[in-house]
């Protein structure tokens, strides 16, 4: 078996395990076994398991940005369509994983926010960056008069993410994308749908 020596490789291996099993259920030994590395190598790169958690959050968020940024930047789509497509893309990844794993930010938020302050802060930073991205697109939609001028775009962006995370949790329990599809339909085909004459 090929040995993994790079820190980035260890992070990617660990991220996959944590997404599948949760952070507390993932022992360092499980990461070492899958990565085929000696125990000393882990602690050469990470001062603690909490430090490792920060690294996998950063990796997950970087992976998510790589997938979503081209959608957010797509000038061929109007702003609301870009946001809708971004959520559909995440849903598609979830579906490809047999309605398991979900979003690391939501998973660790539930599991670790009350116990690891540095992890909570890093999760908040990641979620705030996501909120800022959506807020910018919602502001453009507002300027194009596709959403009301008096709508607080930052509040809406945060609510979209919160509602999506809730729908994702429900989808994990239900083992179905139905709650996610309902979220997308309600927000983008009903709540934010522009109706002529209104």
From TrEMBL:
It comes from the Bacteria. GO terms for molecular function: DNA binding. Keywords: DNA-binding, Transcription, Transcription regulation. InterPro entries: Homeodomain-like_sf (IPR009057), HTH_TetR (IPR001647), Tet_transcr_reg_TetR-rel_C_sf (IPR036271), TetR_C (IPR011075). Pfam families: TetR_C_13, TetR_N. Residues 27-46 bind DNA. Transmembrane segments: none annotated. Residues 4-64 form the HTH tetR-type domain. This is TetR family transcriptional regulator.
